[in-house]
Sequence to fold (213 residues):
Amino acid sequence: MRTEEKKVLPQKEAEKLREKQLGQQISKFKEADKEVLKIEYEEYDEDEDYAVIDLEITQESDIYQKFTMLSRRRISQEIMNHLEENAKYVPLYKPLLINITMPNHILEPELLKTIELMVERSLTKRIIDLTVNIKQIKIISTLMVLFGLTAMIISILLSDRFFNIFIINEVFSIASWVFIWKSVEGFLFDLRKTTNQKYKLLQIYSADYVSKL
Fold:
């Protein structure tokens, strides 16, 4: 059976065809974007008291980290990733309820408590680190404000008394704005981002645990 040979278009016609196809795709993307924006995205039921995260494990050994240098058992990193990913879109005012099951099997309360303690232990170091980062951001941003204001005052004094040292005046003027902008960046962006990360981990840390089919 003879197969039809694919028609080879000249380069200019092929480029025009690709541009046309790209334009059609972009139009579809815009329509899809409008459709998505009309959808109220929710990962939880607003009528429920808790935002439930379901976690099903195949066997008990799946709970623990397989490779670790520590003598005591640690929670599986896959489980931690699952909890953080599913809690990402849950608002902070909504408490979490983590439902852990095995296929057609309910976990014993002792095992649930063990999982809860291991999750808390896994989050503790990160929460402490974020707390330290928040304090550092506040201190550094405050110092930047002071340095910026000091450089600005020096710049003003130099411009009033010494008109012939233009370069030094410009250096202090630029430095003042750099320091002030770094402080604004720290307070408005870095502090907010780090604080939100800490609260999200605390939301998981304070979650309740159940096992229901």
In short: The chain has a mean pLDDT of 84. The longest strand covers residues 96-102. The chain is about 60% helix and 10% strand. The first helix runs from residue 11 to 37.
